[in-house]
Amino acid sequence: MPAELIPVNIVLGDRTYRIKIATGDEEHVRRTIKIINEKILEFKTQFAGQDMQDYVAMVLVWYATQVGGAAPASMVESTVIKELAILEEQLDRAIAQGESVLPEVNPRRQPPE
Q1: pLDDT (tens digit per residue) in 5-34
Q2: Angle at 35 between CA 78 and CA 11, to 5 degrees
Q3: SS3 assignment for the chain
């Protein structure tokens, strides 16, 4: 059953938007909008004379590279999962062929210093 959506008014830059979000996401969305609006004000003071679209674009790039690091992390996680699946297949094949998958252990060998 999908989560219940509630209508929320948000102010982004100099515009108001009415969006529908899941009840549990409201706090996260409001915090994110607050961060974005604070960053817009910061860019307005640093780069005077631009229009609002420029400031929103600057914040979008900042947010995607700084705060939105979850996307690249999920891509890394996806790559690791694929590599682990390949390794698992190789281990399964080696076990099926009766090969040893463990390194040989020499009990007289001294550990490296």
Answers
A1: 999 999 999 999 999 999 889 999 999 899
A2: 110
A3: CCCCEEEEEEEECCEEEEEEEEHHHHHHHHHHHHHHHHHHHHHHHHCCCCCHHHHHHHHHHHHHHHHCCHHHHHHHHHHHHHHHHHHHHHHHHHHHCCCCCCCCCCCCCCCCC
Write down the domain spans for the chain: 1-67, 70-98
Separation of alpha carbons 91 and 86, rounded Å: 9
pTM: 0.56
Task: Evaluate whether 12 touches 33 at the Cβ level (below 8 Å).
Answer: yes
